[in-house]
Design brief:
The protein is of the alpha/beta class and 222 residues long. Helices cover 48% and strands 14% of the residues. It comes from Streptomyces aquilus.
């Protein structure tokens, strides 16, 4: 199945480079390009995209607000957002995840890694650049305005579901979760889907935040 990608970045040359990269992949196509967050929201509603590669810093409406509008639109429930940032210390990354982004990458990511990231997020997985993730979540936890982005808490989960949520918080994919817990990848995926349903989470990225906020996973922990 071809992954339909919408590109949102205020730099024309950057968009052109990303477009060439995406079009070079046999399983992807570019269905639109936006230079502002507002354009990204408008195009998302008409381009029938599967995934939006969204820059954080854009004029008119930044990538965070654009992501929030897209995530809140029931007609765009299946659209994933992969946030791009120039620096992995960008303080807005956590807010982007809270707004509904399914993951983030820094702009100096290698081309092959970016294509794989698009495939990962389009398939419903979360993707968080491993280096800065723990530091960013630690900052989120220390924020006085932090609020859980989902409807419920881990207390509504079964013991097995809590085990699965802990592993999701540590960045494990379904196959890795299955290996640790002695489950098939399909069973692990089913558990993740049930957890998302119980917590009212949009995707795995929000489950990661819940795992850290609840103390089930700690920055730098094992």
């Amino acid at each position: 199945m071809t992954i339909r990608v919408l590109l949102a970045d205020d730099q024309t040359l950057v968009r052109a480079a990303f477009a060439m990269l995406v079009e070079s992949a046999g399983d992807m196509e570019v269905v639109g390009e936006a230079g502002t967050g507002r354009e990204a929201v408008e195009l998302a509603r008409g381009a029938d995209a599967d995934l939006i590669v969204m820059d954080i810093r854009m004029p008119d409406l930044d990538g965070i607000e654009a992501t929030r509008l897209i995530a809140a639109d029931p007609d765009l429930a299946g659209v994933k957002v992969l946030v791009l940032t120039t620096y992995d210390t960008d303080e807005n990354i956590v807010e982007a995840l809270r707004a509904g982004a399914s993951g983030f990458l820094v702009k100096d990511t290698r081309p092959a890694e970016m294509l794989e990231a698009i495939r990962t997020v389009a398939a419903g997985e979360s993707l968080l650049s491993p280096g800065p993730t723990a530091r960013l979540i630690a900052r989120l936890l220390s924020s006085p305005t932090a609020t859980t982005p989902v409807a419920g808490g881990p207390e509504c989960l079964s013991e097995r579901e809590r085990e699965v949520l802990t592993l999701v918080g540590r960045g494990f994919n379904n196959a890795e979760i299955g290996e640790v817990l002695g489950l098939s990848p399909l069973t692990a995926k089913t558990h993740v889907s049930r957890i998302m349903g119980k917590l009212g989470a949009r995707d795995r990225a929000q489950l990661v935040i819940v795992a850290y906020e609840s103390g089930m996973v700690t920055p730098g922990g094992v």
